[in-house]
Amino acid sequence: MFVGEGHFGTVVGHSFLPARLQIHQPSSSPRISLILQQHAPADHRLQDLATTPIIDMQTLARLSRNRLRPAIPAQRRNHASVPLARQAARLKIAQIDKNDPYHDPLTDTFGRKHTYLRISLTEKCNLRCVYCMPEEGVSLTPKPELLTTPEILRLARLFVDEGVTKIRLTGGEPTVRKDLMSVVDGLNRMRPFGLSTISMTTNGLALHRKLPELKERGLDQINISLDTLDPFQFELLTRRRGFENVLKSIDEAVRLGFEVKINAVIIRGMNDHQLEPLVGYTRDHNVYVRFIEYMPFDGNKWNHDKFVSYKDMLQAITKSYPDIAKGTDDPHDTSKSYRVSGFSGRFGFITSMSDHFCGTCNRLRLLADGNMKVCLFGNAEVNLRDMVRQGCSDEELLQLIGAAVGRKKKQHAASRPSHSHLSLEAPTSVATRTPPPESRTEMHIHTDFTAIRAKHMPSSTAIGLCRPLVFAAGRSPYTLHSARLFSTKNEQLTHTDAETGKARMVDVSEKNITRRTARAVARVQLSPEAFRLVEQNQIQKGDVLGVASLAGIQAAKQTGHLIPLCHPLLLNSVRVNTLLDAEKHQVLLEALVKCDGKTGVEMEALVAVSIAACTVYDMVKAVDRGAAIVEARVIDKSGGKSGDWSHEG
After folding, report:
1. Contact 541, 432 (CB under 8 A)
2. Cα–Cα distance measured from residue 513 to residue 102, given in angstroms and rounded to the nearest whole number
3. What is the pLDDT of residues 138-192, one digit of tens each?
4. Catalytic residue among 161, 355, 618, 636
5. 3-state secondary structure of 237
6. Does 305 qualify as catalytic in the annotation?
7. Is this prediction's pTM over 0.70?
8. What CATH class is the domain 515-646?
């Protein structure tokens, strides 16, 4: 409710609020009451609250968005009190705005204003890139469940009205959508309302014929995916022909005056030899070539051996082009730009893994099926399509959008690249993880193939009396084949009774005693300052590495007591080694466990490195609140009926 004397007393940003303000949430929400008293002369102050009109929160939000400016009668102004009144009001209103979800639905709790919206127009693609999706394609969302053009434009206009200034069209491959021109034309009509840039990401295969009309309809920028300048390798990577068409699209786009960027995903051992040729392409072509670090999507079988950091790429490029200068990057740029002296174009790096840019992220994603994602790496989605089709108002849509943005995390799950197949966020550390083919979702790094959600994917998996498994952000659920890592080749879960489904300890009485070994590793990410203190042994609690090693040895011996279904074993030896990685500011831990027994020691090795990692965290947390255990996994074992095993990566 507004409570005041009939005139407005202050202006903050584009919010025009009364001199004295009392806000009430709807009855279904907690009551919020806040009174703001301006420092105005006594005769201008509130005389009677009971005579004041009532305005709810939705109306307040609408007033703020519409930038209403009620007139202030000249005879009632007190110029002497205005500066002091405004100063006090600004402070109070800033406190209100900070906790008011209606004030700005596109600003998250970390103060990031989202002005960039990516809209996926389709899940279809006319390429089958080997690192992206299987040759037969992926299961697609039925057409009736995809957003129609009017629905896309309505939601786009809603975002533009709230401050979005840039919209990028993605896919799948957006050029396969038949009404692409209608979408671009509709977006172009939103420029008077604040939209300044319309761009599109495409593989360029069927683009060159559409470029003149796209230019006429209002498209500004084009990103074209091209991972190699070798036509033969192009066909191998994409499983399709069309290399010449892509080059033709690039040339035509430059000729028509588009701002052109070329996106290249660099994978070690696959196309990392194309760094120098792609940089050389900028000699005579006014384009921006951006090298993208290979990202950890489960479907593309990502591992550390395939990863190339931007520093490694830059070092390789510098050998061929030593005369390189750093470019100027805008605050919200996702890439670090460089230019070779005398070249027409430039090149850069999108460092999603080695040097994330979450702190300045201003991007939201609207998927083809109407779900909105606030982070590329997050699983969380909110469905706007259903709300639109149920006839919800713009205010109701904004409430849902604002709630989703408000829950956005500080940084994505993969921003500290663990390059591992095991995350401590997922309590599946004792499981063999094999992605079921029917639920596998392949991701396209260039376009928003994250729009394609896993089909027929169980929301949780319950085993006996165990709690439902919780999977790490950005990962798909996996089938569990064994409750102890590779302890059997039987498809039946060995720690679950086949008839009752209840948890049980495996009977090993009939097994032979053999020599068993297992090795596990863990990594702890530290800040540069915390790493320096550990390296120089200056942590106040003492010798971090020495204490962590001792803790790991003690933990391995207690595994049978810590893990309910593990057998207590008489261990021959436990060795916990530590190593410091100065480049990545990480503590590396390795445990090697041996015994002569009837069951394996994988869990003893895993517990050893896990507790050692926890000990490191405990000893540095006072100086590094951001310290994180980014990996813990078994990497090899030997002995037993199942034989020897070593991690593929």
Report:
1. no
2. 67
3. 788 899 999 999 999 999 999 999 999 999 999 889 999 999 999 999 999 999 9
4. 618
5. helix
6. no
7. no
8. alpha beta
